[in-house]
Amino acid sequence: MFRKILIANRGEIAVRIIRAARELGIATVVVYSTADKEALHTLLADEAICIGPGKATESYLNINAILSAAVLTEAEAIHPGFGFLSENSKFATMCDEVGIKFIGPSGAVMDTMGDKINAREQMIKAGVPVIPGSDGEVHTAEEALAVAEKIGYPVMLKASAGGGGKGIRKVEKAEDLIAAFETASSEAKANFGNGAMYLERVIYPARHIEVQILADQEGHVVHLGERDCSLQRNNQKVLEESPSIAIGKTLRHEIGAAAVRAAESVGYENAGTIEFLLDEASGNFYFMEMNTRVQVEHPVTEFVSGVDIVKEQIRIAAGQPLPFKQEDIVLRGHAIECRINAENPAFNFAPSPGKITNLYLPSGGVGLRVDSAVYPGYTIPPYYDSMIAKIIVHGENRFDALMKMQRALYELDIEGVQTNADFQLDLISDRRVIAGDYDTSFLMETFLPQYQEKE
Fold it and tell me: Are 178 and 184 in contact (CB under 8 A)?
């Protein structure tokens, strides 16, 4: 086992990793920007190294500074968390080159699964269903028109090297495609340095289903069930739950087996998530992409599976085999996660950085967890993602979990900044959400217009 690891991240995920490492008896080093000098992760870790100014490109995305900090402090491994450099194959490869273990898959596997075109081709070889779409990258609007004509509208334009909802556009008809292609391609180039796109037919209505997998260095792959992430705003997840109300025992086995095949086909190592679209009408599911890192919503899977995913990440990276087989994994109860963001729903969810003057996080009772890195008096910097907390609940069944989440959101009190807490409470209390009657279009097309009208 490692003696010391460096955490190349910030916020609640950095705190989460510090806690897991401490429980494993591992010392921690964190890096921080000047804007995060008083951040909780810098206060909790055994060592903290400042690596640059507040702007992420000059600190948390500065590979040389992070590797220098790891070498200086004699850290044996680096945990990238999520976001920032967590899916950067160059970073993973450079860690290996300097003799520091990257807690995640290899750079080569990241390149295969991170590039959506390569991943699609690999999934076809592995017998994993894929959405009808373009055969490879599409570089011009004219090429896109030809592909769309072949597969049929509506289509989804996606950045080949993208993620996080960037470089994605839905196109309903041919006359809208050229403008959408140019906008999405420019956005992709600005965010990922690559403007190449690909097209997929839109599966609608659909559920966004993702399967959590763990894979050790000996080639053993196990899935921990699925999460339903269909409640999204602008392709960004808002609320997640496990298991999905739309999936029965047979389909759960099929989609889990497909996720395991996907990971095995590329020699995957560590934690990862295979994302699918589920056509509820037909029962068919289709591979979308793989996230080669721990997910924001990993706690819901931890609650229902009883597996500490972050600890397993560290153990796998240290060369330990998975301590369980697929038949050992039994999903119990139901879990839900709400993301609490410093944003103002009344002004198109604009970020709301500033000083937290008062804070009460919900507590008490079995099956309630809050992952956060904020505290009273903490000033949220304007440079990073607006998420400030995750409330996660676990109940004996879905209704039990829904009621527990409503109670937790009622108790939550954050003053000094605007948050989406009331928005989340209204969402979790909506009769259609309670009934499980929603898909990826529900929040944007049905719930949000009604919410804004009420406001």
Answer: no
Chain-centre distance for alpha carbon 318? 24
Q: Which two tokens stand for residue 287?
A: 């591979």
**What gap in Å lies between CA 221 and CA 214, rounded to an integer?**
6
Q: What is the number of alpha carbons within 13 Å of residue 137 lying toward its C-beta?
A: 14
Q: pLDDT of 355-407, one tens digit each?
A: 999 999 999 889 999 999 999 999 999 999 999 999 999 999 999 999 999 99
Q: In whole angstroms, give the CA distance from residue 438 to residue 273.
A: 22
- Strand, coil or helix: 454: helix
For all residues of the chain together, what is the average pLDDT? 95
Four-point Cα dihedral 182, 184, 188, 194, nearest 10: -40
Of 402, 384, 452, 445, give the one whose Cα is nearest residue 423. Answer: 452
pLDDT single digits (tens) 431-455:
999 999 999 999 999 999 999 887 6
State pTM to two decimals. Answer: 0.91
pLDDT of residue 33: 98
Strand 77-79 relative to strand 4-7, pairing: parallel
* Residue entry with tokens 């500065």: 62
pLDDT per residue as tens digits for the range 91-104: 999 999 999 999 99
User: What's the CA gap between 316 and 66, in Å, rounded?
Assistant: 22
In 292-333, where do the E strands start and end?
A: none
Residues 6 or more apart whose Cβ sits within 8 Å of residue 22: 28
* Confidence (pLDDT) at 164: 63
Report d(CA 13, CA 7) in Å as an integer: 9
Q: What is the DSSP string of 87-113?
A: T-HHHHHHHHHTT-EESS--HHHHHHH
Q: How far apart are CA 2 and CA 350, in angstroms?
A: 41
CA dihedral of residues 324, 290, 275, 311 (deg, nearest 10) = 30
Which pair of structure tokens corresponds to residue 95?
């860690």
For the chain, state the CA radius of gyration.
21
Q: Which of 10, 169, 252, 293 is catalytic?
A: 293
207 classed as catalytic: no
Q: Using CA atoms, how far apart are residues 167 and 159, in angstroms rounded to an integer?
A: 5
Cβ(258)–Cβ(129) below 8 Å: yes
Across the range 305-333, mean pLDDT stands at: 98
Alpha helices per DSSP H over 412-443: 421-429, 431-435, 442
Contacts of 166 (CB under 8 A, 6+ apart): 159, 187, 188, 191, 192
Q: Do the beta carbons of residue 359 and residue 413 sit within 8 Å?
A: yes
* Burial of residue 91, with CB atoms counted within 10 A of its CB: 0-12 exposed, 13-18 middle, 19 or more buried: buried
